[in-house]
Amino acid sequence: MAAGERVAVVGASGAGKSTLLGVLNGTVQAAAGAVRVLGADPAALRGRELRRLRARVGTVHQHLELVGPLRVVHNVNAGRLAAWSPARAAWSLLRPQGVEEARAALDRLGLADRIFERTDRLSGGQRQRVALARLLVQQPELVLADEPASALDPALADSALALLGELALDRGGALVTCLHDPGLALRHCDRVVGLVDGRITVDAPTAGLTAADLEEFYGVRR
User: Fold this and answer.
1) Listing from the earlier edge strand, what are the strands of the sheet with 191-196?
2) Where do runs of H (alpha helix) occur along 78-121?
3) Structural domain boundaries of the chain?
4) Cα angle at 15 between 131 and 209, to 5 degrees?
5) Which of 32, 47, 63, 203 is the most exposed place for a label (fewest CB within 10 A)?
6) Distance linking the first and last C-alpha atoms of the chain
7) Are strands 6-10 and 199-205 parallel, antiparallel or unpaired?
8) How far apart are CA 191 and CA 207, in angstroms?
9) What is the domain class of 6-218 according to CATH?
10) Quick one: pLDDT band at residue 151, thresholds 50, 70, 90?
11) What's the predicted TM-score (pTM) here?
Protein backbone atom coordinates (compact mmCIF):
# COMPACT_ATOMS: atom_id res chain seq x y z
CA MET A 1 0.00 0.00 0.00
CA ALA A 2 1.08 3.56 -0.65
CA ALA A 3 2.12 6.14 1.95
CA GLY A 4 -0.87 8.18 3.06
CA GLU A 5 -3.35 5.55 1.90
CA ARG A 6 -6.39 4.68 4.02
CA VAL A 7 -7.57 1.09 3.53
CA ALA A 8 -10.78 -0.44 4.90
CA VAL A 9 -10.77 -4.21 5.43
CA VAL A 10 -14.31 -5.54 5.24
CA GLY A 11 -15.94 -8.92 5.57
CA ALA A 12 -18.27 -11.00 7.69
CA SER A 13 -17.33 -12.19 11.18
CA GLY A 14 -14.66 -14.89 10.96
CA ALA A 15 -13.40 -13.72 7.58
CA GLY A 16 -9.89 -13.08 8.94
CA LYS A 17 -9.89 -9.30 9.44
CA SER A 18 -8.49 -9.28 12.99
CA THR A 19 -5.98 -11.99 12.07
CA LEU A 20 -4.72 -9.82 9.20
CA LEU A 21 -4.13 -6.91 11.59
CA GLY A 22 -2.30 -9.27 13.96
CA VAL A 23 0.01 -10.32 11.13
CA LEU A 24 0.70 -6.68 10.30
CA ASN A 25 1.59 -5.70 13.88
CA GLY A 26 3.72 -8.81 14.44
CA THR A 27 1.58 -10.50 17.09
CA VAL A 28 0.38 -13.25 14.71
CA GLN A 29 2.59 -15.22 12.34
CA ALA A 30 1.20 -15.94 8.87
CA ALA A 31 0.83 -19.63 8.04
CA ALA A 32 2.09 -19.00 4.50
CA GLY A 33 3.46 -16.21 2.36
CA ALA A 34 5.46 -13.15 3.38
CA VAL A 35 4.50 -9.76 4.78
CA ARG A 36 6.47 -6.50 4.62
CA VAL A 37 5.59 -3.85 7.20
CA LEU A 38 7.42 -0.52 6.97
CA GLY A 39 10.09 -2.30 4.96
CA ALA A 40 10.57 -5.19 7.39
CA ASP A 41 9.26 -8.73 7.81
CA PRO A 42 7.82 -8.95 11.38
CA ALA A 43 8.20 -12.74 11.41
CA ALA A 44 11.97 -12.39 10.88
CA LEU A 45 12.52 -9.93 13.76
CA ARG A 46 13.25 -10.69 17.39
CA GLY A 47 13.84 -8.79 20.60
CA ARG A 48 14.77 -5.14 20.27
CA GLU A 49 14.27 -5.01 16.50
CA LEU A 50 10.72 -6.34 16.79
CA ARG A 51 9.97 -3.87 19.61
CA ARG A 52 11.26 -1.02 17.45
CA LEU A 53 8.98 -2.03 14.60
CA ARG A 54 5.99 -2.35 16.93
CA ALA A 55 6.72 1.14 18.28
CA ARG A 56 6.24 2.45 14.72
CA VAL A 57 2.92 0.61 14.38
CA GLY A 58 -0.06 1.80 16.42
CA THR A 59 -2.99 -0.55 17.00
CA VAL A 60 -6.50 0.03 18.29
CA HIS A 61 -7.64 -3.47 19.29
CA GLN A 62 -11.26 -4.58 19.14
CA HIS A 63 -11.16 -5.33 22.89
CA LEU A 64 -9.20 -2.09 23.53
CA GLU A 65 -6.64 -3.65 25.93
CA LEU A 66 -7.03 -0.96 28.58
CA VAL A 67 -6.22 -1.47 32.28
CA GLY A 68 -9.52 -0.73 34.02
CA PRO A 69 -8.32 0.14 37.54
CA LEU A 70 -5.78 2.65 36.20
CA ARG A 71 -6.68 6.27 35.60
CA VAL A 72 -7.35 7.44 32.06
CA VAL A 73 -4.06 9.36 31.89
CA HIS A 74 -2.08 6.14 32.51
CA ASN A 75 -3.88 4.26 29.75
CA VAL A 76 -3.30 7.13 27.33
CA ASN A 77 0.38 7.29 28.32
CA ALA A 78 0.75 3.60 27.43
CA GLY A 79 1.06 4.84 23.86
CA ARG A 80 4.33 6.58 24.84
CA LEU A 81 6.02 3.77 26.76
CA ALA A 82 8.22 2.70 23.85
CA ALA A 83 9.74 6.20 23.80
CA TRP A 84 10.25 6.40 27.59
CA SER A 85 12.95 4.87 29.75
CA PRO A 86 11.83 2.13 32.16
CA ALA A 87 12.49 4.52 35.04
CA ARG A 88 10.26 7.23 33.60
CA ALA A 89 7.51 4.72 32.82
CA ALA A 90 7.60 3.40 36.41
CA TRP A 91 7.67 6.91 37.92
CA SER A 92 4.70 7.91 35.75
CA LEU A 93 2.53 5.37 37.55
CA LEU A 94 3.11 7.34 40.75
CA ARG A 95 3.23 10.84 39.28
CA PRO A 96 1.78 10.95 35.74
CA GLN A 97 4.15 12.28 33.08
CA GLY A 98 3.15 13.92 29.81
CA VAL A 99 -0.15 15.10 31.28
CA GLU A 100 -0.61 18.00 28.87
CA GLU A 101 0.01 15.80 25.81
CA ALA A 102 -2.47 13.24 27.14
CA ARG A 103 -5.01 15.98 27.88
CA ALA A 104 -4.63 17.42 24.37
CA ALA A 105 -5.27 13.99 22.82
CA LEU A 106 -8.31 13.43 25.01
CA ASP A 107 -9.59 16.93 24.21
CA ARG A 108 -9.64 16.06 20.50
CA LEU A 109 -12.02 13.25 21.44
CA GLY A 110 -14.17 15.23 23.87
CA LEU A 111 -12.85 13.46 26.97
CA ALA A 112 -10.32 15.85 28.53
CA ASP A 113 -12.42 16.29 31.67
CA ARG A 114 -12.11 12.56 32.50
CA ILE A 115 -8.29 12.43 32.42
CA PHE A 116 -7.88 11.46 36.11
CA GLU A 117 -10.91 9.18 36.35
CA ARG A 118 -10.59 5.41 36.71
CA THR A 119 -10.92 3.90 33.26
CA ASP A 120 -13.31 1.16 34.37
CA ARG A 121 -15.83 3.82 35.41
CA LEU A 122 -16.24 5.04 31.84
CA SER A 123 -18.85 3.89 29.34
CA GLY A 124 -17.91 1.60 26.46
CA GLY A 125 -17.81 4.50 24.01
CA GLN A 126 -15.65 6.57 26.36
CA ARG A 127 -13.18 3.70 26.81
CA GLN A 128 -12.96 3.40 23.04
CA ARG A 129 -12.03 7.07 22.87
CA VAL A 130 -9.32 6.51 25.50
CA ALA A 131 -7.84 3.82 23.22
CA LEU A 132 -7.87 6.30 20.34
CA ALA A 133 -6.18 8.94 22.50
CA ARG A 134 -3.46 6.39 23.37
CA LEU A 135 -2.80 6.05 19.66
CA LEU A 136 -2.72 9.83 19.15
CA VAL A 137 0.09 10.27 21.70
CA GLN A 138 2.04 7.36 20.22
CA GLN A 139 2.12 9.03 16.76
CA PRO A 140 2.81 5.83 14.80
CA GLU A 141 3.74 5.63 11.14
CA LEU A 142 1.29 2.82 10.43
CA VAL A 143 -2.14 2.88 12.09
CA LEU A 144 -4.08 -0.38 12.50
CA ALA A 145 -7.61 -0.12 13.86
CA ASP A 146 -9.93 -3.06 14.55
CA GLU A 147 -13.51 -1.74 14.61
CA PRO A 148 -12.45 1.63 16.09
CA ALA A 149 -15.97 3.10 15.96
CA SER A 150 -18.10 0.12 17.06
CA ALA A 151 -19.14 1.70 20.40
CA LEU A 152 -19.42 5.29 19.18
CA ASP A 153 -22.44 7.26 18.04
CA PRO A 154 -22.47 8.26 14.32
CA ALA A 155 -21.00 11.75 14.83
CA LEU A 156 -18.17 10.49 17.05
CA ALA A 157 -17.55 7.57 14.70
CA ASP A 158 -16.97 9.95 11.80
CA SER A 159 -14.75 12.13 13.99
CA ALA A 160 -12.71 9.12 15.14
CA LEU A 161 -12.14 7.83 11.61
CA ALA A 162 -11.15 11.30 10.43
CA LEU A 163 -8.64 11.58 13.28
CA LEU A 164 -7.11 8.19 12.48
CA GLY A 165 -6.75 9.19 8.85
CA GLU A 166 -5.16 12.51 9.81
CA LEU A 167 -2.73 10.75 12.13
CA ALA A 168 -1.58 8.41 9.37
CA LEU A 169 -1.19 11.30 6.91
CA ASP A 170 0.65 13.50 9.45
CA ARG A 171 3.37 10.87 9.81
CA GLY A 172 3.54 10.05 6.11
CA GLY A 173 2.22 6.60 6.92
CA ALA A 174 -1.00 4.72 6.25
CA LEU A 175 -4.21 3.51 7.89
CA VAL A 176 -5.60 -0.03 7.77
CA THR A 177 -8.92 -0.41 9.55
CA CYS A 178 -11.50 -3.17 9.89
CA LEU A 179 -15.01 -1.74 9.60
CA HIS A 180 -18.54 -3.12 9.76
CA ASP A 181 -20.14 0.15 8.65
CA PRO A 182 -20.03 0.51 4.83
CA GLY A 183 -20.68 4.24 5.09
CA LEU A 184 -17.58 4.81 7.22
CA ALA A 185 -15.45 2.86 4.75
CA LEU A 186 -16.70 4.92 1.84
CA ARG A 187 -16.40 8.28 3.61
CA HIS A 188 -12.99 7.83 5.21
CA CYS A 189 -11.00 5.32 3.14
CA ASP A 190 -9.39 5.36 -0.28
CA ARG A 191 -9.55 1.63 -0.87
CA VAL A 192 -11.56 -1.38 0.25
CA VAL A 193 -10.13 -4.87 0.66
CA GLY A 194 -12.75 -7.57 1.16
CA LEU A 195 -12.01 -10.91 2.84
CA VAL A 196 -13.89 -14.20 2.68
CA ASP A 197 -12.44 -17.14 4.65
CA GLY A 198 -9.03 -15.45 4.75
CA ARG A 199 -8.92 -14.80 1.00
CA ILE A 200 -9.05 -11.39 -0.71
CA THR A 201 -12.11 -11.29 -2.95
CA VAL A 202 -12.41 -7.51 -3.36
CA ASP A 203 -9.65 -4.92 -3.76
CA ALA A 204 -11.00 -1.70 -5.23
CA PRO A 205 -10.94 2.08 -4.82
CA THR A 206 -13.86 3.35 -2.75
CA ALA A 207 -14.63 5.81 -5.55
CA GLY A 208 -16.01 2.91 -7.58
CA LEU A 209 -18.15 1.40 -4.82
CA THR A 210 -21.46 2.17 -3.13
CA ALA A 211 -22.84 1.27 0.29
CA ALA A 212 -25.11 -1.26 -1.45
CA ASP A 213 -22.04 -2.96 -2.94
CA LEU A 214 -20.52 -3.44 0.49
CA GLU A 215 -23.79 -4.49 2.10
CA GLU A 216 -24.12 -7.19 -0.53
CA PHE A 217 -20.54 -8.24 0.21
CA TYR A 218 -21.42 -8.64 3.91
CA GLY A 219 -24.61 -10.43 2.95
CA VAL A 220 -26.67 -7.58 4.41
CA ARG A 221 -29.72 -6.02 2.81
CA ARG A 222 -31.20 -2.85 4.31
Assistant:
1) 57-60, 142-146, 174-178, 6-10, 191-196, 199-205
2) 86-94, 99-108
3) 6-218
4) 85
5) 32
6) 32
7) unpaired
8) 8
9) alpha beta
10) confident
11) 0.83
